[in-house]
Amino acid sequence: MSEKMDDFHGMRPCCRRLEGGIKNRGMRMTIPRQLVAEVLEQSDKYLGAEEIYSIIRENYPAIGLATVYRTLVLMDELGLVTRQNFGEGRSLYIAADNQNDRYHHQLICDNCYKVIRYSELSDDDIELYRQLEERLSARYGFEINKQVVQIHGICPECKKKLS
Ligand SMILES: [Zn+2]
Hints:
The chain has a three-stranded antiparallel beta sheet with strand order 1-3-2. A three-stranded mixed beta sheet has the order 5-4-6, with no helix packed on it. It is built from six helices and six strands, in the order ααβααββββαβα. By secondary structure, it is of the alpha+beta class. Helix 1 runs antiparallel to helix 2 and helix 2 crosses helix 3 (49-59). The longest helix has 18 residues, at 123-140. It binds zinc ion. Zinc ion is lined by residues 109, 111-112, 114, 155, 157-158.
């Protein structure tokens, strides 16, 4: 199979942004690069390079682990992924939130690395964060542009399994 992608129809936002970043660097969007972006786009948990590699390999055996690593580094440089080290000595990745959003809140399970994003939270939550912002702004005279908050813990599924 050719690695050249001629038809980008129906590409997900993260893939499109990756394609833009890649072209700006004079590189080509290839099927392996697109597949890495797609796996990240569809995942609700932090994934390591090896996991992404084994997911893609099921349908696209030609993928190389080195390609996955290089694509992740590139996506990190382009701000398309959030990278996190959970103390295992390796980096895990999740698709980045929209850069233009004001609120970037994540509830992260430290056991399975599943993430509940701010976009899944309620209007009441937004109101609470907005109030916090107003208070901090008033107290410190600080003009706030965006909030990036990571809240770590254990998700309900893991809590059940662990108890
Ligand atoms: Zn969990």
